[in-house]
Fold this protein.
Amino acid sequence: MLKAGIVGLPNVGKSTLFNAITRTRNAESANYPFCTIDPNIGVVTVPDARLEPLSKIAGTQTIIPAAIEFADIAGLVKGAAEGEGLGNKFLTHIRETDAIVQVVRCFEDGDIHHVSGSIDPIRDIETIFTELVLADLESATKRRDRIAKDAKRGDKEAQALTEILEKIIPHLDTGKPAILCELTDEERELAKELHLLTSKSTIFAANVKDDELADADNNPHVQKVRDYAKDHVGCETVVISAQIESELIDLDEAEANEFLNDLGVSESGIGQLIRAVYHLLGLRTYFTAGEKEVRAWTIHNGDTAPQAAGVIHTDFERGFIKAETVAYDALTECGSVAAARDAGKYRMEGKEYIVKDGDVMLFRFNV
């Protein structure tokens, strides 16, 4: 299962957000740096409004959503690349994740200490990126020096990797993350074995106070984060209120909706954040729907029908024959499987078919 790491400076709301996402109170949250030492891990279900309509069509109350993994990682401070604070642990833990959720504090509160003494989200973001870039620069330089002899001897893989490093190292030296370095698709695939921290896809979670969520678009800190994310990283920003999410943990759905309505918002930021991270990881969903259950299955963007079948069981992929497929929108528009068949919305797809997000599938196989 792919993992997203929740990172940020100390006291920006990481552990509170992790507790809210996982609907637990496993991560200690307190008003002092390094409250989190070892990463807390939680499996999170992906909110998907398509599951309920499918369950009605299939005539089942059993719904199994997709899931991803989140890790709450220790707060980083300036100098982490040289081992300051919990720097070494932080860098090791983030290296083990597949994507990064960087929590950025976008609210003023004198009762909650900020490690830098003031609120400046862009400074905080750049502190994180600077430490990650410095760590990557050191790692990439050591790797280039280590494979230099093999490259001179004619080792093709070492030569190819050296050429990539000769592009990445000067890029990192300008302070830019590796993910923005111009590489061919083939080079980017080979560069994955470098395990660079700044090559990971990133999303920003702009953390605001509870009474600021409804009017977050007018929060100057939030706007700065959005502009920075767009101009410097090319990534998305999701506005959340870790404080609100923490209070929602112990409420049922009806109580939570009433609470949010009183605050003037229709949905908390958690669902949006989880869905955004799911897509950030390159994941997509297809469904199976029968009398026993309706289930969301996780695949990678670009997976073929046999690969999608293999997520259920390897025998399905090995013996794949055809996939009976209907788009979610077509099925729900028709209102029933029978009506969708009569309307010609079902189709048979073969081994080359690229599964689309929202496909409802039934596999035919023979082992």
Summary: The chain has a mean pLDDT of 88. Residues 121-152 form the longest helix (32 residues). The chain is about 40% helix and 20% strand.
